[in-house]
Amino acid sequence: MTLLLVAITGCGSPSRSVASYCSYFYGEGSKLRNRWLQSSSAAGQDPFAGLATVFADLPEAANFLHQLSLRAPETIAPDVQTLANALEHTSEGSAAGGLGALASGLLDGLATTGAEQRVNLYTEQHCGRPPT
Predict the structure, then answer these.
(1) Which helix (H) or strand (E) holds 10?
(2) Side-chain half-sphere CA neighbours of 7 within 13 A
(3) Are 12 and 22 a contacting pair, CB within 8 Å?
(4) 84: closest CA among 102, 121, 111, 103?
(5) Cα separation, 88 vs 84, whole angstroms
(6) Alpha carbons 58 and 93: distance in angstroms, whole number
(7) The whole model's pTM is what?
(8) CA angle 91, 131, 122 (to 5 degrees)
(9) What pLDDT, on the 0 to 100 scale, is given for residue 5?
(10) If we measure between CA atoms, which residue out of 123, 52, 30, 127 comes closest to residue 83?
(11) Alpha helices of 44-97 — where are they, by DSSP H?
(12) Cα three-residue angle 83-79-27, rounded to 5 degrees
């Protein structure tokens, strides 16, 4: 019975490692990136529909970053989670609308600049450039 519990708990949460981080970033991340690229090309035909698609994808992008933070080594995990929180906050603000949401989004953007730079640098150094 103990062996079964060990096997089940071992499958419950992702492991924190560079390999797990890179695999998830370029595996699951490529699916999200492809959808964003499609909505960008669709925006050329219908800018309002393209913008609506991007805002609809914000919760999914926040979830992706949260899942990535669970796989990230401890050195970069807080920065990845900061980005996830900012996207989640932005998506909640865009749903609420108004000037307060715009100001809040601007503050989130300013607060995440360093985290975004560190995550980009970490990802490029440890995972390589994105596949073409």
Answers:
(1) helix 2-10
(2) 4
(3) no
(4) 111
(5) 6
(6) 11
(7) 0.71
(8) 65
(9) 41
(10) 123
(11) 47-71, 77-96
(12) 70
Greater confidence, 54 or 18?
Answer: 18
Residue 89 is given by DSSP the state H
CB 74 within 8 A of CB 85: no
Distances in Å between the Cα of 22 and the Cα atoms of 30, 54, 82, 100, 132 are 11, 24, 18, 36, 15
Instruction: State the Cα torsion 23-28-33-39 to the nearest 10°.
Output: 170
Q: Which of 33-37, 41-45, 90-94, 113-117 has the highest mean pLDDT?
A: 113-117
Q: Which of 111, 25, 115 is nearest to 79 (CA)?
A: 115
At residue 112, does pLDDT exceed 60? yes
Find out whether 63 and 70 touch, Cβ atoms under 8 Å: no
Are 70 and 41 in contact, with CB atoms under 8 Å apart? Answer: no
Amino acid symbol at 78? P
